Design the sequence.
């Protein structure tokens, strides 16, 4: 393990930067950083860690504001996240005078990330539900919201793509299937029935209801397979894939797990062109650094945390040599076992419960979701070119969505679908991951 870290400076930079940012939430990094440097025992590694720690300390997110009395508040601000839409309205992060707030507003057509708005409303403290995930210092409930200036064009491209997909899905599928497909493909979870959401949560696969790194891999594989059918140079194929993934990421909300996966794809796929072998661990570290440097408060985002730990676990355990030796059953079960085990400490800490049948749920549902994503995108694209044919293709998508719902509803009623775990602290989370590293030490890296 030590030898592998010595040759991966990006990992050293990530560890140091994470510790620097974490000073906002506790002083444990002051112990963790020196301990890490002592364990590795390398001057260059130590310089990388301490340098990144200093940069992270300078960029650390502000402390949560705590409770305060609600008051009238407003001004000119910039939307700094792609809006999320719900049945009761919409939500986005807004930055006013370099301070971020969570903006709650009624639907404003065309509003997206990068737009400048004039807002007036009631500013209140964060609730447990609204959370601090994006560095928000309060919740601003808009009473008046006006668009002053549109932001960069690419954010509006993404919004138009998402809107086009939504219209096509709603016209081609039944309401429950449409809500499932919109959530799976583009993070549009409004319209999803509460009982459906609860069934996915109890089975431990609620992450499937939002586009993530898994969906980026599915889309990339689909595009590479399509382009390989034509006499297109590999460089152009990769260029088309990266462009399509960028639009998909923006349309799906530009969430941290999606950005992480797109960046990893950008590093790993063209590696052979430079006569280098793609290194998954360095790719994950690079993607994590970009996420954190561009948006430091994302360090407390649950999606980012789960995405990073599960992806690190996957690239450490599932090496190319092992993958080539495994049979189809091992290839189906080992990634799920690895990702589930890696996510347990954080899931148990945040929610106080885990799903023991989640492994079975992931094994059964994940392949079907991959097919659902591909067939939905094909039906959507076909509907734009040949509407009658596209309308016909939505029928098997509807049936597949119903099958997935039936499996989830059945699995969520099984014993062990939801197990309460004893409360433990952040130190407990760190210790659990330390034990995992010790247990995996002789298996994780070739």
Sequence:
């Amino acid at each position: 393990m030590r030898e592998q870290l010595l040759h991966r400076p990006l990992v050293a930079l990530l560890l140091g930067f994470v510790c620097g940012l974490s000073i906002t939430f506790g002083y444990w990094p002051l112990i963790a950083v020196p301990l890490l440097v002592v364990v590795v025992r390398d001057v260059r590694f130590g310089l990388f860690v301490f340098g990144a720690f200093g940069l992270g300390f300078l960029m650390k997110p502000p402390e949560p504001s705590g409770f305060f009395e609600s008051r009238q508040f407003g001004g000119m601000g910039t939307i700094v996240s792609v809006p999320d839409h719900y049945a009761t309205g919409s939500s986005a992060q807004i930055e006013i005078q370099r301070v971020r707030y969570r903006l709650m507003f009624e639907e404003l057509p065309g509003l997206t990330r990068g737009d400048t708005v004039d807002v007036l409303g009631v500013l209140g403290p964060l609730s447990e539900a609204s959370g601090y995930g994006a560095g928000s210092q309060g919740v601003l409930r808009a009473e008046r919201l006006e668009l002053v200036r549109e932001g960069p064009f690419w954010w509006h491209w993404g919004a138009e793509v998402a809107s086009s997909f939504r219209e096509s899905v709603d016209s081609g599928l039944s309401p429950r299937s449409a809500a499932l497909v919109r959530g799976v493909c583009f993070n549009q979870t409004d319209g999803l029935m509460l009982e459906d959401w609860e069934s996915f949560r109890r089975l431990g696969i609620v992450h499937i209801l939002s586009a993530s790194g898994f969906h980026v891999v599915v889309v990339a594989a689909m595009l590479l397979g399509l382009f390989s059918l034509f006499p297109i140079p590999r460089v152009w194929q990769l260029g088309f894939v990266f462009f399509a993934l960028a639009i998909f990421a923006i349309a799906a909300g530009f969430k941290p797990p999606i950005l992480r996966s797109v960046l990893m794809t950008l590093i790993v796929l063209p590696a052979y062109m430079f006569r280098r072998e793609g290194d998954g661990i360095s790719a994950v570290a690079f993607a994590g650094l970009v996420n954190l440097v561009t948006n430091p408060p994302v360090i407390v985002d649950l999606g980012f945390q789960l995405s990073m730990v599960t992806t690190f676990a996957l690239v450490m355990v599932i090496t190319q040599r092992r993958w080539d030796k495994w049979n189809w059953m091992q290839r189906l079960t080992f990634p799920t076992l690895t990702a589930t085990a890696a996510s347990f400490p954080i899931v148990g800490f945040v929610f106080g419960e885990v799903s023991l049948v989640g492994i079975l749920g992931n094994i059964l549902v994940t392949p079907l979701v991959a097919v659902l994503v591909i067939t939905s995108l094909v039906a959507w694209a076909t509907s734009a070119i040949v509407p009658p044919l596209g309308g016909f293709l939505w029928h098997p998508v509807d049936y597949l969505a119903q099958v997935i719902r039936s499996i989830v509803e059945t699995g969520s009623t099984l014993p062990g679908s939801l197990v309460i775990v004893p409360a433990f602290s952040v130190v407990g989370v760190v210790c659990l991951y330390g034990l995992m590293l010790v247990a995996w030490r002789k298996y994780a890296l070739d």
